[in-house]
Design a protein that fits this description.
The complex is a heterodimer of chains A (97) and B (346). By secondary structure, chain A is an alpha+beta fold. Chain A contains three helices and four strands; from the N terminus they run βββαβαα. Chain A is 38% helix and 25% strand. A four-stranded mixed β-sheet of chain A has the order 1-2-4-3, with helices on one face. The interface between A and B is medium-sized, with 15 and 16 residues.
């Protein structure tokens, strides 16, 4: 799938995250901001990358503002943001769980 | 916890009356209802407003939370709501002005400071990569030289006066960076203004023409500029725009000098020039000072050439006089697209 428009998902409330996705040519660009970046920054980024990889997204700008979200929340917000940023959703939800 | 709060959107066009209620809520929190706010997000507990955040295009304004309800959850919620609302309205890149002591709070809401006018105001944006990415793109256009100049013009429309300014500036430096204000708030649309500048400076060497950006004389950095009729442009508004230039744009391109035309007619621009000398040159920023050079306007007869004069003549279709004030490319476009009398907008 291809990111064709800017999209937003999530909130800035505690235990959530806000994800902002925008089209960009030539590779993935992930910017992560988190209140717990020192403890979990690497883990959150790994979850973001893995989720995007499973969705077949290899190009785009992804900005994540994390407020201490659990991995499953990170995954859900990324998936929602991507679903809003693409023209046609071709991923299989069952394969994403 | 706060699930019983109702979220409400108030649009000035449809609920002008409701703005009165928001205004009194803001007043109890020490804030004014600012002009220009188009829509409010309001959180209510029952019928009582407990938090609000306003939006003018892509600028967040009038954010307040009832002191009794103050706690991060509710403030974050109202800011989240306004960010989503802005996105629905087509604005994903947001700016906000706040007092420097509130930057930590808005930092928690995903806003990052761009510049601070010490003790007065901080301009923030809702992305960690906005100004940084913009400056990265500028840095690729750096040119070597001891004197690197910059000129920022609105060119509404491009006149022989602009041409004169750009020529003199280009002569005075090793390389000149020319920016055209991008904000579409002038009589001539940005696309026309940019095209005319491009055609008008094509033969000048050692010059890079840059499209404008949200970080330069835009609604976001200089929100009063396009409301000249108010005649009260607060000091901090010119300061914000000029400090963005000094702290970010000038260092990215290695700009050492900024050239401006003298301004005999327009009080707003005249004040901007005066403020420029202070904010770009005074010892108040970690960024190196930028020398401001005023270049006297070229005159036709004894009258300095100005774009506002061209617009006045255009309104009465006086092409004979316009021809003396603008280069042929501008005249051509004016005749082709603007020949019928129109009411001047700015």
């Amino acid at each position: 799938m291809k990111i064709v428009r800017e999209a937003l998902a999530g909130t800035l409330e505690s235990s959530d995250l806000m994800v902002r996705i925008a089209p960009k040519d030539g590779g993935l660009d992930i910017v992560l901001e988190s209140e717990v970046i020192h403890q979990f920054g690497a883990q959150i980024e790994a979850v973001v990358r893995e989720t995007l990889d499973r969705l077949g997204i290899d190009e785009g700008l992804v900005v994540v503002e994390d407020k201490g979200a659990l991995d499953c929340v990170v995954r859900a917000r990324i998936q929602t943001a991507v679903s809003r940023a693409v023209d046609e959703w071709t991923a299989d939800w069952r394969a994403l769980a | 916890m706060f699930d019983d709060l109702d979220v409400e959107y108030l649009d000035r066009r449809f609920e002008p009356g409701a703005f009165g209620e928001v205004e009194s809520f803001l007043a109890t929190n020490g804030l004014d209802l600012e002009d220009g706010v188009e829509v409010f997000v309001v959180l209510r507990a029952g019928r009582r407003i407990v938090a609000c955040a306003g939006l003018e295009a892509n600028i967040v304004k009038c954010v307040a939370t009832d002191p009794l309800w103050r706690g991060e959850a509710i403030s974050l919620r109202v800011v989240s709501e306004v960010v989503h609302l802005a996105h629905e309205r087509g604005h994903s890149h947001l700016f906000l002005y706040t007092r420097p002591n509130n930057t930590a709070f808005f930092g928690g809401c995903g806003f990052r400071p761009i510049v601070e006018v010490p003790g007065l105001v901080t301009l923030m944006e809702n992305t960690p990569i906005g100004i940084r990415r913009y400056c990265d793109s500028l840095r690729k256009l750096r040119r070597p030289g001891a004197v690197i100049g910059a000129v920022v013009i609105n060119a509404n429309p491009f006149t022989k006066g602009h041409r004169w300014l750009v020529e003199r500036a280009a002569e005075a430096c090793d390389w000149l960076h020319l920016f055209v204000v991008a904000e579409d708030a002038s009589f001539f649309p940005y696309r026309d203004r940019y095209a005319l500048v491009k055609a008008g400076v094509e033969d000048i060497e050692r010059l890079t023409l840059h499209p404008g950006s949200e970080y330069m004389v835009s609604r976001a950095t200089f929100s009063s500029y396009f409301f000249k009729e108010k005649n009260v442009v607060g000091d901090c508004f010119t300061a914000v725009d000029l400090l963005v230039f000094r702290d970010h744009i000038a260092p990215a391109l290695g700009i050492t000098h900024r050239y401006v035309g003298t301004e005999p007619f327009c009080p707003t621009t005249n004040k901007y020039n005066a403020d420029m000398k202070y904010w770009l040159q005074a010892d108040l920023s970690a960024a190196p000072p930028v020398t401001v050079v005023e270049i006297p306007r070229t005159e036709y007869g004894a009258v300095p050439i100005s774009a506002s004069e061209v617009r006045r003549l255009l309104a009465v279709s006086d092409f004979e006089h316009i021809e003396r004030l603008v280069p042929p490319t501008t005249l051509q476009l004016l005749k082709a697209n603007y020949a019928t009398p129109k009411v001047s907008a700015a």
